[in-house]
Each structure stands twice: as C-alpha cells, then as structure tokens.
Amino acid sequence: GRVALLILSISLPAVEGRASAQTLADRNEVVAGAEARVISLERLQNARRLRQLSIPFGFVLALGRVRLDLGSAFASTELVRVDSTSHSVDHLTDTQVRGAYVFGRDAVVATLALNLPTGPRRASALDYAVLGAVSPNFLAFPIATYASGFSATGGIAGAIPAGNWSFGLAGSVRVSSRFEPYEDAFGPLVYKPGIEGRIRGGADGLVGAAKLSAGLTYSTFGDDQFGTSGALRGQYQPGPRWLAEAALQAPLGASTLGLSLWNFRRTAGDTTGASARNKENLTAGEVSLTVPLGRMLSFEPAISGRVSKPQSGRAQMLGVGGALQIHLGQRFTFLPSARYDTGWVEDGLGSRTHFHGGYGSAFLRMGF
Q1: I need a labelling partner for 313 at 20 to 30 A (CA). Which of 68, 69, 211, 339 fits?
Q2: Residues 245-280 pLDDT 10s
Q3: Is 130 helix (H, G, I), strand (E, B) or coil?
Q4: Residues 6+ apart with CB under 8 A from 334
Q5: What would the pLDDT profile of 309-363 be if each residue is shown by its tens digit?
Q6: Nearest Cα to 15, choosing from 131, 117, 97, 135?
Q7: Number of H helices, E strands in the chain
Q8: Under 8 Å CB-to-CB from 314, ≥6 apart: which residues?
Q9: How many angstroms separate the CA atoms of 224 and 174, rounded?
C-alpha cells in the first residue's frame, strides 16, 4: 500500500526545496540546509555566469493518520553579464503547506496542499531577466520559480497489493488565484492561471532481489488569462504534459545499485490562436552506487545526464558527482553532496554555446 504515498507525492505539485517532504513521512522531521549552483557560459552575448544559493527549510509532523508538512526557501540568484556587470535577486520563495489523511492501512490517502505567496511580486524588469534565466528545467537550478501566487490543490490516491507488487492511481485538481509576477513601463502584468488537473498511475514491486517502480503522469490545464493595469485581456492555453518515470534498486554485494530514468514532454501552448512554440521534450537519467563505509557512513558516487529537445535547437548535459550519508546518532543525519556538470546548448540555427559548472548541497535532517 505504500505506493499510494509515492504516487500522491508526485501527482501533487512538488514542494520547492529538498527540505520539504516529497513523500509522506512516518515520523516527525525537521530539515534545513543549503544548495548552490553555478553555471559559466561561453560565447553568449547577454550572460557569462549564473549563480544561485538557496537555503531551504521545512518540517514534517506525523500525527497518527494525519501528516502535515511545510517547506520554503530563501534564494539568492545572480546573473553576470559579458561586460562584468551583474544583478541579483534575493528573496524568500513561496511557501508550501500540505496536510494528508491516511485511510485504512495506507490504502487511500487524501491531501490538501496550499501554495502561499511569500515570494516576490511585481518584480522589476531587471529582476525578471534574472529569474527567467534560471527557469528552464534543463539547467536544474534548485529554485526555478520564486513565486506563482496563491493556489490550493486537492488530491486523492489509492493503491491495491497484488502479490509482490502494488498498483496505484492518483488524481489532483489545482485552483490558482491571479497574481502579478512582474512590472514594466506599462504597469504590472496580471496573470490568472487556469484550473490544472492531474492523473497518475504507478506501480512498484520486486524483480528477483531488485525493487522496481514506475509511473506515468498526465496533466491538463484550463485557459490562463493575462493583462496589464489590473485588467485581464489576453488568453493562453497551455499544452498538456506527460511525465514518465522508472527507478530500479538492486543489491550488488554489500552495496546497492540505483538506476533512474524520466522523460518530460510538453506540447506547445496557444496564444490567441497562434502557437507559442514552447514544445519541450526533456529526458534525464542517473546511475548511482550506495557503498556502506561503516555503520554510520555511506558513500554514493553517481553519473547523470540530460538531453533536451525543445521546439527549436537542442541541449545536452553530463554530470559526475557523489554524496555522503552520515548518521550522527539516532536522530540526526548529515547529507553533503557535490557534482560537476558540462554540456552545451544549440539554437535553431546550429550555433552552439558550451557551459560548465557545479552543484553542491549540505542538509541536516533531525527526526523526533
């Protein structure tokens, strides 16, 4: 029945920052830490380096059949131009609060999630240029979106066991209020997202001594409305989206081999009858090995990669890194990690920009 928790956590909007629970925890936890990502770009006219430091924090409370969690982050993002001038955006991001109720023995889980608008609103044109630079999913910045306004999401998930396997189905609906993401010379831009619906199927089970899990998510959206000076005059129809995922964990001697693969596909949106030309297909995978180095310590080297095929152009990225899991007694776990990335982005005319950079994080998790 635990698959119900897995499919629910992914079918609902992900809580920003690793500090918040992505699945429903069985115990109380507090998590805090820091993440840093830097990307240096070559032969790009308007940007030489992107840097982001985020400090996520959150907690999880397990109260019998009720689970409560909250997560947010403070983020500082800087864009350095070719002429060495720079601009940074430093602000708290939106806060996510989620409550869940578990029926029976994890057979059915109902959830209500709220996105609270603690992030910036009416960002300046300079701020919005920085925020837009780190927003592409391909670049994998810890905080891709600072703010999206107030929203409420209700979801329900159910699972049934079948031998060594469990199969589940989850659905959710999100309703959002209008908000003002940025302001230019014509006044603030007003945006009202349409209703979002998601449905997800998932399965997990044993294949010999290995554990396999897989899922497929479909998202559909109502029409978004936008305008300036408080009036909604334009209309945008987002394209539907699909997310397919698979993961395998297999024992390899005293170690554990991990394989994961996912593919995100979005069709092009439509603005007043014209294609927005924002179709996207992003595939990512990772191979890791968890090696125990003692009763309180394990090391996890990993190789990861991403391939992006948007409406125009293409991109690739390869990452090599590792993580440690250090148990500091029964309540505390320290989780440092680091990764080096290299890759390139090519536009529709075949002009290629190479980049390199890195990612580092350190988290402290306390259970009580």
Answers
A1: 339
A2: 999 999 999 999 999 999 999 998 887 777 778 899
A3: helix
A4: 324, 325, 326, 328, 362, 363, 364, 365
A5: 998 999 999 999 999 999 998 899 999 999 999 999 999 888 999 999 999 999 9
A6: 97
A7: 2, 23
A8: 307, 308, 346
A9: 13
